[in-house]
Amino acid sequence: MNERNWEYKGLQLSNSSNPYKFQTEDVQNEVVYEGKIFTNENSDGVYSSNMTVWARYFDFTGVIYGTKVEKEEAYRKLKEIIKTEDFPSLSNRWFHTLKWTDKRGKNVQIQAKVYKPLVTKEAPHNMLSFSFTLLADDPLYISQIEKSEIWGIGVLWWNTLWNTLGNALNSGTNGIIVNNEWDKKAGVYIQAIWSLTNPRITNVTTGQSLKILADTTILEVDNRTKPFIITENGANIKSAKRWEYISLAPWENNIIISCENYTENNSVSVTIKFNDTYE
């Protein structure tokens, strides 16, 4: 099954719903891996460092066709969205959503920017051929369907030494079970609405824990995109962050939201949003 139904910046690039006279014919989807090889001076042979996934490239080729007016309009529209952007910043790196149906039949998306701008040349049958390249610096695919869970806060406790191995190093009550159904870790958005003192977010499944040394009323943590977000009622409170951001392991995750002013009777509203993720 071939990849198909390509869409960038909300414009269809490869199916009949595209109102403009151009058609994507091929997309080469390639991941760049990086690793280092070192010579072992004390013995024969070499050794290598870990391989790192660096980026994913999408090389598009296709044709523009139709009457002279239709070709001019199609070229104008492609040129409008396939262009390099000036002055990227932390708040706007000029990445946009690229969607498609992959070879497994899954509807996926990724954040990509123009790496090589639109190029055209004359082609047979009075057509123009075109090419351009998009770059995603995070090569992981995410589902086009956002999942969400709504829950409350719980209690987290840790083992007291001395303990007998091997038991769980941490546990708790009132955890939120979420399922990342693909095979790579996924970023996650978490919102907690209530008056919380030093809230803490823990993924019991992975052992990751994030603590906020602050009083919060509308806490939002989001590491699905760059830059990562930690806000209290819309104000940036990243300086109050301790330990690490939370991500979801493949399949089941037990997330516990806790705080230092916990009571069994509270009206905390916790919302978790994420997309299944794989490479």
Verbal overview:
It is built from one helix and 24 strands. With 279 residues, the protein is mainly β. The protein folds into two domains: 4-139, Elongation Factor Tu (Ef-tu), domain 3, CATH 2.40.30.200; 147-278, Jelly Rolls. The strands form five sheets. Strands 1, 2, 3, 6, 7, 8, 9, 10 and 24 form a nine-stranded antiparallel β-sheet that branches. The radius of gyration is 24 Å and the shape is elongated.
SSE order, one letter for each helix or strand? EEEEEEHEEEEEEEEEEEEEEEEEE
| Total number of beta strands | 24
Q: Low-confidence spans: pLDDT under 50, at least 5 residues?
A: 158-170
Helix content: under 10%
Strand content: over 45%
The CATH topology annotation of the largest domain reads as: Elongation Factor Tu (Ef-tu), domain 3
- Tell me which CATH architecture of the largest domain applies here: Beta Barrel
In terms of topology, how is this protein built?
Blueprint (H helix, E strand, L loop, with lengths): L3 E5 L2 E2 L9 E13 L2 E3 L6 E3 L3 E13 L3 H14 L14 E6 L5 E17 L3 E10 L4 E3 L3 E5 L3 E4 L11 E4 L2 E5 L8 E9 L2 E4 L4 E5 L2 E8 L6 E4 L2 E2 L4 E3 L7 E8 L10 E6 L2 E2 L1
Antiparallel strand pairs: 1-2, 1-7, 3-6, 4-5, 6-9, 7-8, 8-9, 8-10, 10-24, 11-23, 12-13, 14-22, 15-18, 15-23, 16-17, 16-22, 17-21, 18-19, 19-20
